């Protein structure tokens, strides 16, 4: 390479070969082509935004941007965003009770966790099936959007262990895997047996390592007010998402209906 081939500092960094004139012109035309594309982008996107169907009262592309913010707030299978935990002795001896929707009828005597599996027979699991999985305990600050919080001690199984064991939450029917997050449904829906209370949980928060299917409070089986026989404990969310007395679980890409979101609260309600 000779000195004369080196471009001056403020010249475009063209390849160091001999370029015939016609090729230079072609490059300039190409560059101009890209420039016009770039210049047209604002007009095209403006048209695209204003012509798109409205979704949830917002223009869809704008709503998608907001959903992307949600995505940023989530971390797939991450162990690095754990909520603060406490010693068992720090837990309130008597946990506060709040919310009776879906709990007004007696617990069905033949209670089983019903799970809809797309394209397959539904599963019906007993509490013993759930207790057969490794037990996990957590002591953390439970927070209700109404303004109170309390350190509570819950026990159960990791929802992620459960989904892995029963190969749930994926389109393929394989166990959820961090290597194939495209295979995951976007949401898990949960409802009480009488469908009086229901929540939708984004799959990332569902798979969070501190999210439990809980059957114990302070080392004792959960009582009916707190959600016997099985409830969701999801420390990365406010209390509203911690559905008591789970009757049915299902998977969906669209947001499952959500009791408090329908009444004006944020759907995501993450901490
Ligand atoms: N089935 C059911 N689950 C529910 C509710 C409810 O009304 N019904 N209330 C939610 C709210 S707002 C809170 S703060 C917590 C309270 O749980 P706790 O009663 O165990 O304290 O449950 C959540 N789960
Ligand atoms: Mo709450």
Automatic annotation (TrEMBL):
The chain crosses the membrane at residues 31-49. It holds the Pfam family Oxidored_molyb. InterPro entries: OxRdtase_Mopterin-bd_dom (IPR000572), OxRdtase_Mopterin-bd_sf (IPR036374). Residues 108-260 form the Oxidoreductase molybdopterin-binding domain. The keyword Transmembrane helix applies. Keywords: Membrane, Transmembrane, Transmembrane helix. It comes from the Bacteria. This is Molybdopterin-dependent oxidoreductase. It comes from Spirosoma liriopis.
């Amino acid at each position: 390479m000779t000195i004369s081939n080196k471009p001056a500092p403020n010249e475009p960094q063209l390849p160091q070969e001999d370029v015939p004139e016609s090729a230079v012109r072609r490059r300039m035309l190409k560059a101009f082509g890209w420039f016009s594309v770039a210049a047209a982008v604002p007009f095209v996107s403006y048209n695209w935004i204003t012509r798109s169907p409205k979704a949830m009262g917002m223009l869809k592309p704008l709503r998608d941007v907001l959903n992307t913010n949600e995505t940023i707030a989530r971390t797939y299978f991450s162990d690095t965003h754990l909520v603060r935990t406490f010693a068992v002795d720090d837990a309130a001896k008597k946990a506060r009770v709040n919310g009776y929707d879906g709990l007004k009828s007696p617990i069905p005597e033949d209670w089983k966790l019903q799970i809809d599996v797309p394209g397959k027979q539904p599963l019906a699991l007993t509490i013993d099936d759930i207790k057969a999985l490794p037990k996990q305990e957590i002591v953390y600050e439970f927070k209700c959007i109404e303004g109170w919080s309390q350190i509570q001690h819950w026990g159960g199984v990791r929802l992620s262990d459960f989904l892995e064991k029963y190969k749930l939450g994926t389109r393929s029917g394989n166990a959820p895997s961090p290597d194939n997050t495209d295979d995951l449904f976007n949401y898990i829906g949960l409802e009480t047996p009488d469908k009086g209370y229901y929540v939708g949980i984004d799959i990332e928060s569902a798979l969070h390592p501190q999210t439990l299917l809980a059957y114990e409070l302070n080392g004792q089986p959960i009582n009916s007010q707190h959600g016997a026989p099985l409830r969701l404990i999801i420390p990365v969310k406010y209390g509203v998402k911690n559905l008591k007395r789970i009757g049915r679980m299902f998977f969906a890409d669209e947001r499952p209906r959500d009791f408090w979101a329908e009444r004006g609260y944020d759907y995501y309600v993450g901490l």
